[in-house]
Amino acid sequence: MNISSRIPPKIAIHSFTNKPWNLAECLDRYQKAGVPGISVWRNLIDPAEGGVGLEEAAKRIHDSGLSVPALVRGGFFPGTTAEARQNAIDLNRQYLDEARAIGAEMVVLVVGAVPGQALAESRKQVCDGIAALLPHADATGVKLAIEPLHPMYAADKSCVNRMAEAREICEALGHAKVGIAADVYHIWWDPDVEAELRLSAKQNTLFGFHICDWRVQTRHLLTDRGLMGDGCIDVSGFRRLVNEIGFEGFHEIEVFSEDYWARDQDEYLALILEREEACRPAN
Ligand code: ZN
What we know:
By secondary structure, this protein is an alpha/beta fold. It has a single domain, classed as Alpha-Beta Barrel (TIM Barrel). The chain is 42% helix and 15% strand. It has helices at residues 23-33, 54-64, 82-102, 119-140, 163-173, 184-187, 193-202, 235-244, 258-261, 265-278, and strands at residues 11-14, 37-41, 68-75, 104-110, 143-146, 178-183, 206-211, 251-253. It has an eight-stranded parallel β-barrel with strand order 1-2-3-4-5-6-7-8, surrounded by six helices. α8 links the parallel β7 and β8. α1 (23-33) packs parallel to α2 (54-64) and α3 packs parallel to α4. The longest helix is centred in the middle third of the chain and has 22 residues, at 119-140. The chain is globular, with a radius of gyration of 18 Å. The two termini are 14 Å apart. The relative contact order is 0.14. The model is unreliable at 1-7 (pLDDT under 50). The structure holds zinc ion. Zinc ion (ZN) binds at residues 147, 183, 210, 254.
């Protein structure tokens, strides 16, 4: 028998993966299934988006005993006016407070981009925005994880598209609370991805690791992600690599999929766990 398959893995599920479930349902089902962690999307917290409110969310999450690798998501720093950029910084301060309240290790940053504004200028604004947050990251004890997004999102969601650009911001800021959330969906194609992951581990900036799959016939830019095994990413290879380079955080399952949201979510959770085990590396 393969011994490693009997060791409970350090996995977490992003709440948006089971979008039809509310916070109480996610916590209950994950807990019963033995999933030790949940990364919480803000829609489950923010009353404006149908969430239960911060105080209630914090209580429920705390009572569940589940670990929270991340609050998802902050960012969106670039803007064409100083006012817009300041608003983004203020919002992200609030997200750091929320993350602290729910016991999240980090806020994942989808850094943003402005259509028509040069990506280099946007990256500069991202760097400035994160710099402005550093005192509050220190005060809350919550980390900021820059998530490079696939270049198909460069127009309006992220001017940081490779590990290298995220690393450059980390290096420019040189702060222990600033690092990277590496999501295989966004970075699997990058010829430098292995070298950058190794460098990130060495620089202590590998904060988060997200897994899912890239469907070869992708039908939608946002809501057609595959579950591990549905597509062409060597998820097992990535998991082996991050283990090998000393990453000790959660392997966070994050899938946005209209197909899977339309299914019975209990059956889907069972499938998620089956696929997780199937791509669990031996190391
Ligand atoms: Zn992700």
